[in-house]
Amino acid sequence: MIIFYSILLLIIVYKILKNFWKIKDQIPAEYKGDKELLSLAYIMASSEELNKKMGPYINWVNGFDYEKMFANESFSASEKTLAKVAVVLYDNGVNLEFVEVFSELDPQGKEVALMAANYRYDKKDIYDPTNESFHIN
């Protein structure tokens, strides 16, 4: 059973990273190393719905109008929590209770939030596919 879940997680992470690389291609070269933007992009890549809802409010050069996004978009509880995590990782512009991550997100959502936070606050350059690992260390 553990092997099954490990394979499933690997497939999910691969899909997210594949979407992430597409989003990262939209970021201007001078901002491709910006950990705040890359963490935001990773969370967007985790869900087609989040990408659709967050994308119109992001200008990779001028910023993220998350206040307008929250005012104009309807989110499920888990989507809203991931969007709030993205904002916190971007510029700490919303109030996010730590317990929300664990009470509102399913295991995949928790993994996405924790992996994005790990990269945002770590010094490793793990978003570039230079090895066979699809995990963010």
Structural write-up:
The chain has 137 residues and is mainly alpha-helical. 62% of the residues lie in helices and 3% in strands. It contains 7 helices and 2 strands. The chain has helices at residues 2-24, 35-45, 48-54, 66-72, 77-91, 98-104, 107-121, and strands at 58-59, 63-64. Strands 1-2 form a two-stranded antiparallel ribbon. Strand 1 (58-59) and strand 2 form a beta hairpin. Helix 2 packs antiparallel against helix 7 and helix 5 (77-91) packs parallel to helix 7. The longest helix has 23 residues, at 2-24. Mean pLDDT is 86; it is low at 133-137.
Q: Which features characterize this protein?
A:
single chain; 137 residues; mainly alpha; two-stranded antiparallel ribbon; 7 helices; 2 strands; globular; disordered C terminus
What amount of the residues lies in strands? Answer: under 5%
Gyration radius, in Å:
14 Å
What form results from the Cα inertia axes?
globular
Mean pLDDT: 86
Gap between N and C termini, in Å?
Answer: 24 Å
* Category from helices, strands and their pairing: mainly alpha
SSE pattern: HHHEEHHHH
Number of strands: 2
Task: Tell me about the largest β-sheet.
Answer: 2 strands, antiparallel
Number of helices: 7
Helix content: 55-70%
Strand arrangement, largest sheet? 1-2
| Regions with little confidence, pLDDT below 50 for 5+ residues | 133-137
